[in-house]
Write a structure and sequence with these properties.
It is a single chain. The chain has 97 residues and is mainly alpha-helical. It has a domain of 65 residues. The protein is 78% helix and 0% strand. The longest helix is centred in the first third of the chain and has 25 residues.
Length: 97
Amino acid sequence: MELDPETFGRASTWLLHDSTGRLVGLGLVLTYVLGWSRIFSRAGFPAALAWLMLLPPVALLLWLFLAFAPWPARRELRALRRVQRVVHQAEREKLAA
């Protein structure tokens, strides 16, 4: 499928100069930012990082960081599982005695 420059021009004009187009564009940007903020917060990072995803070079770096950095949420989960194992072990020893 080929992108027709005339169609692209009409769409960009609609998005930039029509009030409905601006509203749709704002809705798309907000949906994009809210989606990324949900991803960042679930990973244990500040949700405000989602606003940086609007800057293309920074977005690429953040995407790579999110893919390869250790997530705080994972560290917390590992720590909780360690505590849980210790508690279960203590309970088993208490029942055995």
